[in-house]
């Protein structure tokens, strides 16, 4: 597998890019954590402060450098609107994402998910997953629009029920 790309331009979406999150991108981490529904549906902690956001960004940079996964800043026309990325697990790669309210409803995350899946496909990955907490209709709609199918149900680390979605990427479907 090639190293994770630092910049992903999203086909068919002029001005939309996924730019590798760096340590000085901590403000988007803080903004997402302070958006009321983001901690409800993601792994962003509701009590994140500036120091925690800086630490979170640093940890994401280290994970990318080590090849464990990568988090991108979702930018439309140079405006940071959220984050998206993927992490490696024993079962392969899993995608994740979060958007600020001003970035929602424009198809940005669906396009970002499709672009990340296309890169993983080009690397020879046979499939990719994503998880949605039960009740997160917006995230379920992203999964469906991007071509994922429900694979199984499970339990989030905090005990809430979730659905794991699967997208076959190649000949191994």
What fraction strand? 25-35%
User: Which overall shape is indicated by the principal axes computed on the Cα atoms?
Assistant: globular
Strand line-up of the largest beta sheet: 1-2-3-4-5-6-8-7
Helix content: 25-40%
Number of helical stretches of at least 4 residues: 5
Describe the structure in your own words.
- The chain has helices at residues 26-33, 38-41, 50-66, 108-122, 137-145; strands at residues 7-9, 16-20, 69-76, 79-89, 92-99, 127-133, 149-155, 161-168.
- By secondary structure, the chain is an alpha+beta fold.
- The chain has an eight-stranded mixed sheet with strand order 1-2-3-4-5-6-8-7, with helices on both faces.
- Helix 1 packs across helix 3 (50-66).
- The longest helix has 17 residues, at 50-66.
- The model has no long low-confidence stretch (mean pLDDT 94).
Key phrases:
173 residues, alpha+beta, eight-stranded mixed beta sheet
Question: Short summary of the structure?
Answer:
This protein has five helices and eight strands. By secondary structure, the chain is of the alpha+beta class. An eight-stranded mixed β-sheet has the order 1-2-3-4-5-6-8-7, with helices on both faces.
Topology record:
Elements: E1 7-9, E2 16-20, H1 26-33, H2 38-41, H3 50-66, E3 69-76, E4 79-89, E5 92-99, H4 108-122, E6 127-133, H5 137-145, E7 149-155, E8 161-168
Parallel strand pairs: 5-6
Antiparallel strand pairs: 1-2, 2-3, 3-4, 4-5, 6-8, 7-8
């Amino acid at each position: 597998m090639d190293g994770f790309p630092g910049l992903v331009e999203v086909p068919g979406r002029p001005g939309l890019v996924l730019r590798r999150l760096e340590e000085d991108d901590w403000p988007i981490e803080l903004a997402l954590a302070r958006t009321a529904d983001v901690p409800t549906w993601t792994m962003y902690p509701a009590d994140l402060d500036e120091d925690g956001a800086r630490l979170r960004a640093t940890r994401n940079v280290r994970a990318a450098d080590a090849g464990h996964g990568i988090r991108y800043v979702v930018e439309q026309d140079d405006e940071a609107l959220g984050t998206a990325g993927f992490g490696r697990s024993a079962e392969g790669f899993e995608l994740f994402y979060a958007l600020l309210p001003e970035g929602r409803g424009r198809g940005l995350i669906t396009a970002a998910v499709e672009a990340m899946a296309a890169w993983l496909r080009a690397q020879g990955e046979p499939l990719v997953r994503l998880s949605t907490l039960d009740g997160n209709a917006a995230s379920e709609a992203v999964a469906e629009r991007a071509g994922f199918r429900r694979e199984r149900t499970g339990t989030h680390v905090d005990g809430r029920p979730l659905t794991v979605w699967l997208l076959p990427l190649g000949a191994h479907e």
